[in-house]
Specification:
This protein has about 375 residues and is an alpha/beta fold. Helices cover about 50% and strands about 10% of the residues. The chain has a single domain, classed as Alpha-Beta Complex (Spore Coat Polysaccharide Biosynthesis Protein SpsA, Chain A).
């Protein structure tokens, strides 16, 4: 077992080192303040599906109203996915008196994926070349569209993945999600740095409408409830690998709200696992396996050390090395987001994270999860 643990740790160290190297290859995208005042070259159709988001919509709508972008150069399309609350009334009340151009349409279900159906319906009626998606529980930075406009003009991409972070609260459940997000963002950017992207987030994702139609949108993966982001990423990457890029800009950071309970966190992670397990790429599956085995070894090592104190020194060594590597991996991302890593919470999460990982994997085998009030198989 000691030998197996050493091999797994070695592979984990190499994997994390490669991701960190790839992360540093993506340089932060900056543009002059004067450029923010120039006439935009792009127009955007912002697509936002929602379902029973009355609690979150006011904050999102306020951030939309504050966007520093000419109103004639973007539209917002909201898609109501069978909401039972007053989400629609809130949108109308908040935006009717604004100068934001928006529409609200009803979702038309044609597949097993409500969100993919919603995005597809919105794209059908969108006016502009560039589609940009986000979620109803997000906050948009004021220069969000300005950053994307400048990035498109300078890099000529066809798809752009953007950074996502959580609104910060200083308690265990929020800090767990914050650290987990740092890990996901490092993995996302690191893979882009190796020009083999495997992750992106639909809360901050842009692509050309023409290219979406050319790859037939979500066809062939709309039987999977989630994955409106990574399956589309796979399609775009297969057609134009050099034109699928990441915008590493603080002006483009979208904030999303953390889950309020451990039960919701687990359901969310099961939803994520349901799509990543269906990815075609071998690299993403191997990386997931390495991360899973390294966390499994933490729990196995703890158990064996309890029943055999002679193994405790090996367990402590394994845990210390893994913890130091994890900190080195998370630190650059936390710096980019201008968030300090809370060391006590970080140390506590070295044991919580493996437990959540195992629980998610076991529950994933049941083949269903609950999301937005629906049971998804």
């Amino acid at each position: 077992m000691i030998l197996i643990g050493g091999i797994i740790l070695g592979i984990y160290l190499v994997s994390m080192g490669l991701l960190l190297f790839g992360y540093r290859r993506i340089k932060e995208f900056k543009f002059d303040v004067s450029e923010k005042k120039t006439t935009p070259l792009q127009s955007f159709s912002v697509i936002i599906p929602f379902r029973n988001e009355a609690k979150n919509l006011p904050d999102l709508l306020a951030s939309i109203s504050k966007l520093k972008y000419p109103r004639e150069n973007f539209e917002v399309i909201f898609i109501d996915d069978e909401s039972k609350d007053d989400s629609v009334e809130i949108i109308l009340r908040k935006l009717n008196d604004s100068n934001v151009i928006f529409r609200i349409i009803n979702n038309v279900r044609t597949s097993a994926s409500p969100k993919k159906d919603a995005i597809s319906e919105a794209i059908k009626i969108s006016k502009y070349e560039w589609i940009i998606t986000t979620d109803a529980d997000c906050l948009l930075p004021k220069n969000w569209l300005v950053a994307f406009d400048n990035f498109i003009s300078k890099n000529n991409p066809i798809m752009i993945a953007g950074p996502v972070n959580y609104s910060l609260k200083n308690d265990l459940i929020n800090q767990y999600q914050q650290l987990d997000n740092f890990s996901l963002q490092t993995t996302t950017v690191g893979a882009f740095g190796w020009k083999h992207p495997i992750l992106c987030n639909g809360a901050n994702l842009a692509y050309k409408k023409e290219e979406f139609n050319l790859v037939l949108g979500f066809l062939n993966n709309n039987h999977i409830a989630s994955g409106d982001d990574i399956f589309l990423l796979e399609k775009f990457r297969s057609q134009h690998p050099k034109k699928v890029q990441f915008i590493k800009s603080r002006d483009s950071i979208v904030l999303t709200k953390a889950q309020g309970s451990w039960k919701n966190i687990i359901n969310q992670r099961i939803r994520w696992a349901s799509k990543t397990s269906k990815q075609k790429g071998v690299f993403s599956k191997l990386l997931g396996l390495v991360v899973f085995l390294s966390n499994l070894m933490v729990l196995i090592g703890l158990f064996l050390s309890v029943i055999n104190l002679g193994l405790i020194s090996y367990f402590i060594s394994f845990l210390l090395i893994k913890t130091m590597v994890d900190f080195l991996i998370l630190y650059p991302t936390s710096t980019f987001f201008k968030r300090k890593i809370n060391v006590p919470f970080f140390l506590i999460n070295t044991l919580i994270y493996p437990i959540i990982t195992i629980v998610v994997v076991v529950k994933s085998l049941q083949g269903k999860y609950i999301w937005k009030g629906r049971t998804i198989n």
